[in-house]
Amino acid sequence: MSDNAFVRLINVTKQFGDVTAVNNLNLEIAKGECFSMLGPSGCGKTTTLRMVAGFEDLTDGEVWVGDKLFSCPKKHHYTPPENRNFGMVFQAFAVWPHMNVYDNVAFPLQLRKLSKSEIESRVREALTATNLWQDKDISPADLSGGGKQRVALARALAINPDVMLLDEPLSSLDPHLREEMRFEIKDLQNKYGFSVIYVTHDQSEAMALSDRILVMKLGVVQQIDKPLDVYNNPKNKFVFSFIGVSSYTDVEWRDGKAFVTGSDKPLPATLEIPERMRGEKVFNLASRPTEIKFTDAMDVNGVEGAVLRKAFLGEIIDYLVRIGNQEVRVQIGRRDIGPENGEKCFIKFQRPFWYKQDE
Ligand SMILES: Nc1ncnc2c1ncn2[C@@H]1O[C@H](COP(=O)(O)OP(=O)(O)O)[C@@H](O)[C@H]1O
Ligand SMILES: [Mg+2]
User: Fold this and answer.
1) Distance between terminal CA atoms of the chain?
2) 217 DSSP 8-state letter
3) Among candidates 208, 219, 213, 184, which has minimal Cα distance to 197?
4) Looking at 198, 224, 241, which one is the last position of a domain?
5) Does the pLDDT at position 93 exceed 80?
6) Strands (E), the chain
7) Which of 82, 282, 294, 340 has the highest CB neighbour number within 10 Å of its CB?
8) Which residue, 134, 130, 171, is CA-closest to 154?
9) What is the mean pLDDT of residues 176-203?
């Protein structure tokens, strides 16, 4: 255990019948850290969050916060959610329409039997921090989607949580508002210092918010790293594809040289292909479209191709370039110079990754 671990999951497994929703998950989250769990639908994110919150029991493993054990089926130990000082916000707007905004935030504090003056000061602070004080007397039903989610945030905030559990809290909002509210959540965290566990399937959201990201696939952790490291050093093909735009090109060996399949010109020797691809019949050159540049025939790093399609997408120009029988996606800035439809061209792969066909 590292010195600053606060939330700790040890060998956590959750089985629903034959489905292993979460498989032997080990995780440490520091106090004040913003930690995201990222992965496609069904990979076990919500189940993990619900186990941390105490809404779901564990099949095996332990959940700790600080020096308190919260869940451990082996020891028949289980602390109910109301005794785990967590704030929670979910995707669905879980606000009570029959209560006004003020009472939505005050109600959980009343359940905790706090004094009237303590409740008043906490509600005022939470509603002010979320820009809702002027709306305190209306029903959340009369607020926009963003407003309703702010009420849910204020309610979570008012309990002074140690950890804020957020399950796709912004995914019902339109894209513009979603971006804005990311920063609001981040500001609240900076101000109040709680840890955040943020569940999302949206990689840009995870990138923007997090100190570290966990990428999960079918209940199994693929990588836990800082956002930029997940992006620049993906542990495997799944992570590479899930984070950012990816493009795969089939490559094969002929007489000890690597060729894009269907091409009669070998790839430049300057592309360093890892030894572990040696035994492969066909393998993948993995690239990000923005990390490929157009170059000219004189460049020893250039690979010859032809422009199949050129599309102007506003900020970027998106190309499909045919090499051999493969199609490679290339993106350049709208002010950059590039070839036209149908033209012959040369492209240069920068920082490609290499993967086996079936990994
Ligand atoms: N209550 C449940 N009963 C049976 N299977 C469940 C239940 N909750 C989740 N699952 C299964 O567990 C897996 C993980 O689900 P979930 O944690 O909701 O994924 P995510 O939040 O990443 O989309 C899925 O295969 C899902 O069908
Ligand atoms: Mg989910």
Assistant:
1) 31
2) E
3) 213
4) 241
5) no
6) 5-16, 19-30, 34-38, 60-65, 68-72, 77-78, 86-90, 163-167, 195-200, 212-217, 220-225, 247-254, 257-260, 282-287, 292-295, 303-312, 316-323, 326-333, 344-349, 353-356
7) 294
8) 130
9) 90
Domain termination site, one of 220, 241, 262: 241
Residues 209 and 290 in one domain: no
Percent of the chain with pLDDT strictly greater than 70: 99
CA 30 / ligand 2 centre spacing (Å): 23
> Is residue 92 in contact with ligand 1, taking CB distance under 6 Å?
no
- Other C-beta atoms closer than 10 Å to the C-beta of 184 total 17
Counted domains in the chain: 2
Q: Assess whether 211 and 299 both reside in one domain.
A: no
> Are 159 and 120 within one domain?
yes
How far apart are alpha carbons 186 and 157 in whole angstroms? 13
> Which of 12, 18, 19 has the most ligand 1 atoms within 8 A of CB, as the residue to mutate?
19
Question: Which residues span the domain enclosing 223?
Answer: 5-241
Per-residue pLDDT reduced to its tens digit, 43-71 = 999 999 999 999 999 999 999 999 999 99
| Secondary structure of residue 189 in the 3-state scheme | helix
Residue 82 has a pLDDT of 86
Q: What is the pLDDT of residue 92?
A: 72
In the block, tokens 């497994």 appear at 13
Ligand at minimal distance from the CA of 45 is 1
Indicate whether 92 and 213 sit together in one domain.
yes
Radius of gyration (Cα) for the chain, nearest Å? 25
